[in-house]
Specification:
It is built from 8 helices and 23 strands. It has helices spanning 17-28, 43-47, 80-94, 178-189, 213-219, 255-260, 283-308, 396-411; strands at 6-13, 33-37, 63-64, 67-68, 98-100, 104-109, 115-119, 122-131, 138-139, 153-156, 170-174, 194-197, 207-208, 211-212, 264-266, 269-273, 276-279, 330-332, 338-343, 347-348, 354-355, 377-379, 420-421.
Length: 422
């Protein structure tokens, strides 16, 4: 028996906030579409975040299309359960035509010019493909992990939930980006002995001269700066996010202060050999560079305040509260007390299901504002898709609106057609 292939003008792959934002704007224009989500809508926030996770940007920046934050604490930072509730309310508002539990396994353009979309529930065709699955797919765990003793519990940051899930003993956190720094703090506050392998992530202040730094930067137009306007151009997409936290009302994360409180800091973890963890000698350089970024952002705010004639309380630059002593580049695992490792070194993209020439040598999509060089394929929800704000709840809606405008122009009147069987 020949299976029936359903046609939809627009197929959206991914049902997170990015895909749902595209669905919102398509519905506003009467454009027929389907959202394919391998799990449930916005599931990542509920299933791949630790228990004390909260936003690092203030709630007022949460402005999904038709769904601005309207809670009682616009200057606060939503916790995990509040984020999930906010997104569930967004799903209810959008009421998207979504196929939950349906994975897209392959997309390729057919001889008829349409995209053949293979899914776990059957085949579809589409005129347009919107890739809304993000860029964080495969957790990075280095090959050195295979050499570690089986007695060491190892998890990735997306599996971490709370300190109690790890065996008793010291914990090595590898990586000091947003996840690594915040997980290290979570363990530290719980009284666990923490060893932290520090990378090159920058940091910023939570509050400076009487206001949240995010608020200052928003007023200064930083979140509206486009990739084309940035000195690094496309290279800015490779930048690591600054570490800071919204926990307990928001505060700085100062790794030096953690060191004064007993946290052991090292450079980048490079290997495990002869029973010892081997670290790069970059700790002081990394801490100094992070502080230069911290003070540099604050100096830019100082300039803005002065040029704008704004009255704001004075504040002095940050001065280190701790300096590394004797350099430790080798730590024998036996005797260290370490019983578990949390790998916080990111993810790699996995777009193998998309058979199209729209990727660079690193497997990242090539695009301008999400629109690729191949008609009919767009991306949404990637860091710096267009601006610094693209990876946040506040700007993804604008990115989605732009992509939908492009799609509508390409589809023309056919975009308003109902789904049809072919």
């Amino acid at each position: 028996m020949t299976s029936t292939i359903r046609h939809v003008p627009v197929a959206i792959v991914g049902g997170g906030q990015a895909g749902l934002s595209v669905s919102y704007h398509l519905k506003q224009r009467g454009l027929d579409h389907l959202v394919f989500e391998a799990h449930t809508a916005a599931h990542t926030w509920a299933t791949q975040r630790w228990d004390t996770f909260c936003l690092v940007t203030p709630n007022w920046q949460c402005d999904l299309p038709g769904h601005p934050y309207d809670g009682p604490d616009p200057d606060g930072f939503m916790k995990k359960d509040e984020i999930v509730a906010y997104l569930k309310a967004f799903v209810a508002k959008v009421n998207p035509p979504i196929r939950e539990g349906v994975a897209v396994t392959r997309v390729a353009r057919g001889a008829d010019g349409l995209f053949a979309v293979q899914t776990s529930e059957g085949d579809y065709t589409a005129d347009e493909i919107v890739v809304a699955s993000g860029g964080y797919h495969t957790p990075i765990i280095p090959r050195m992990a295979e050499k570690l003793p089986g007695s060491i519990a190892q998890i990735h940051s997306n599996q971490y939930r709370k300190p109690a899930q790890l065996p008793e003993g010291a914990v090595l956190v590898v990586g000091s980006g947003q996840s690594g720094a915040q997980i290290a703090e979570d363990l530290h506050l719980a009284g666990r002995a923490v060893h932290l392998a520090v990378g090159d992530a920058p940091r910023c202040a939570r509050f400076y001269r009487g206001r949240d730094v995010v608020t200052w930067l928003a007023d200064m137009g930083y979140y509206e700066k486009t990739v084309e306007d940035h000195p690094l151009r496309d290279g800015v997409r490779d930048n690591t996010n600054h570490y800071v936290t919204g926990r307990d009302g928001g505060r700085d994360i100062d790794l030096r202060r953690f060191a004064t409180e007993g946290m052991a800091l090292y450079g980048v973890l490079e290997d495990y050999a002869d029973g010892a963890l081997c670290f790069r000698d970059n700790l002081k350089r990394s801490l100094d560079q992070a502080d230069r970024t911290y003070n540099g952002i604050n100096a830019a705010i100082d300039t803005y305040i002065a040029e704008s004639g704004i009255a704001a309380p004075a504040q002095t630059p940050y001065s280190p509260v701790w300096e590394p002593g004797e350099l430790v580049t080798s730590l024998p695992l036996a005797g260290s007390g370490i019983t578990s490792i949390v790998w916080c070194i990111g993810f790699t993209p996995d777009f193998r299901w998309l058979d199209a020439s729209v990727f660079n040598g690193a497997g990242q999509p090539k695009h301008k504002r999400g629109v690729t060089g191949e008609d009919g394929i767009s991306f949404i929800g990637l860091p710096w898709l267009n601006t610094w704000g693209s990876g946040r709840f506040g700007a993804v809606g604008r990115d989605a609106e732009y992509i939908v405008q492009v799609i509508q122009k390409r589809l023309g009147a056919e975009g308003f057609a109902l789904s049809r069987m072919v």
